[in-house]
Amino acid sequence: GTGTNNDLYINQAIVFIEDAIQYRSINHRVDSKSLWLYRWYYSRTCQWLLSLTITIILALAFIEKPSSLTVTSDVRYRLPAWNPPCGLTESIELLCFLVFMADVSVKSYLIGWEEFWKNRWLMAYILTLIVSLTDWIVSLSFFCTENVRIRRILRPFFLLQNSSMMKKTLKSINSTLPEMASVVLLLAVHLSLFTMFAMLLFARTKDGQQDKEWVGYFRNLPDSLTSLLVLLTTANNPDVMIPAYSKNRAYSVFFILFTVLGNLFLMNLLTAIIYNQFRGYLLKSVQSSLFRRRLGIRAAFEVLSSLKETPANAQQSYVSVGALLQVLQKVEMDSRCKQAITRSLKMCSCDQLSAAQFQKLFEELDKDAIKQHPPSPEYQSHFMQKMQFAFGHPYFGYLGNVVALANIVSICVVLVMDADKQPSERDDFFLGAINCFFILYYLLEMLLKIVALGLKRYLSYPSNRFDGLLTVILLVLEIATFAVYGFPHPGWRPEFMGLLSLWDMVRLVNMLIVFRFLRIIPNMKFMALVVTTLLDLVKNLRAFAGILVVVFYAFAITGIMLFKGAVVPLGNTRATSTRLLFCHFRVQLVLYLKEKCDFVALFGHFQAEVICCLLHLLSVNLICRWAKIYFVAWWLISSVIWVNLFVALLLENFIHKWDRRCHREPLSDIEYQRTVELMFRDVLEEPTEEELMEKLHQHPHLQLCR
């Protein structure tokens, strides 16, 4: 009937608009039951359940054998880790697989059989589930004693396929690989040529005492190539060149040329190419997202124009304002956008909307999210008005920054004076009194700002929330200190009481005071720009963090399976070479010194020793030489490709923010929130009417009247 058709058109319009908001494809079933299932599948509850399942299956690696449930990672001190019995993690895994099977079944049904064969991600999803279930059955048949579990390496795929932005990012990376391969090939040529030069320069001589460079780094082709590759990462710099330089200073020219050409030119050239190419491909991806949004809005217009209450027109279609208001009441979207669109509709003098007017209404989705701060309270008292003016003025905030700086300087002075004193000789009176004075000032400053700005306006600023939270924590800690140890006085050195000693409490308070000094960032324009750029990257580029998790997870699981039992434990006298014994002795010595001295002073030395021994383990027969492929692949993906991708996006985000900041009037009461799509909004092209209608007519499940 007419009423049933109208309800169907309304529901279709609701779903199409929600698809446009989330940049989803509209190529799915549009009958009544499928629309209900579609909205249920993309509801917060269902998506939260799916995300929880992905988190659980990824977290299983922490409790599966070898378990990571130990306090320390040092094999000399940690107790035997708890390993779950066979069948426990497998049962949890099976429940996760059942959720994934339901997920892929719903997705496959909603898009239809024809679209299913075009969707490679869904086919890969099913293949991953089949391989994982097969491996799960094999694992149970061996009573969980097998070492190789393929399904563990495949787990990150479940995270990857659940994010459309991660798929687009991966597609952009894949499209950038040919250009990156040219520079990587140039790096390989660079390494090969200098390897040949090194083997000729540092060849073996009759005098064994002068062959330290040959023995240590350039004995054969694989060792020479590995030494220069590690030098390209600067991990063995300057160790690799010290023997040759000790013999003849002229050898330094070789290493200088290699480092300058490799690190300064080729690596930075790779960064430039990645920035240029990846930015272009990401722009294409964002352009396709814009097309999906426009297509979803246009599809909603077309189905709403089919309502029986809308007058037919041979030349042009229209949508009634009442029908759109009815749809907006049921659409799940940001309240700001919904209120803006509803306000525009009520202000509209016409009862019918054309396609252009309909599309223009939903351009509100593309605008910056603007946060307006609440107004300050209006006081009638002349005295309160003066207080409001004085303590709400920016200069009062600058005074607070000066006081915070004075607090930091005073803490530094006391710490420098007490640096060489024994705990029994240290007098905590001065530091305690200083902290007490400044915390009282911070509390007074916070209360005066609340009076001047009002509580709602005060809390609407992130810097005030940060400042106020730390002030409250400092006040609570100070009260707790006084309650346990009494008020500060000369010779204030009470014995340990409660959970923390007095010195621990004072140190905790001082660390929070130092952390509180970050409040100066909003008052420094350039520093604030840098910090907001980094925060935007954290908030909006979750897809890149997700892919990074996928890479880390896959390499970690692969490393566990490849190198299980490969490295000789420390102290094992069955090592196969004198140098390896010496290497073990060096690590044990560093670990011993690390316990006796402070960690910071020995951290760099400890890293160098471990890297040295790891490289030696790779070069002898304890670990297969083919294992170098694993580490080189890790270096290429994590350090070369991924770091450069992050640098490219950091540059793009920073340049975009800098350009907008230079052309935007500073408004203290307005905050702009940007997304990845909005970052490229100024250079995107709007799709034409013909492109939208052509795509709509190709919809596999939607039959348009015109």
Automatic annotation (TrEMBL):
GO BP: calcium-mediated signaling; endocytosis involved in viral entry into host cell
Compartments it resides in: Late endosome membrane; Lysosome membrane
InterPro entries in the record: Ion_trans_dom (IPR005821), TPC2 (IPR028798), Volt_channel_dom_sf (IPR027359)
Molecular function via GO: calcium channel activity; intracellularly phosphatidylinositol-3,5-bisphosphate-gated monatomic cation channel activity; ligand-gated sodium channel activity; voltage-gated channel activity
Pfam (any one): Ion_trans
Domain of life: Eukaryota
Catalysed reactions, as listed in the record: Na(+)(in) = Na(+)(out); Ca(2+)(in) = Ca(2+)(out)
Recorded family membership: Belongs to the calcium channel alpha-1 subunit (TC 1.A.1.11) family. Two pore calcium channel subfamily.
Name of protein: Two pore channel protein 2
Source species of the chain: Sagittarius serpentarius (Secretary bird)
Gene name of this polypeptide: Tpcn2_2
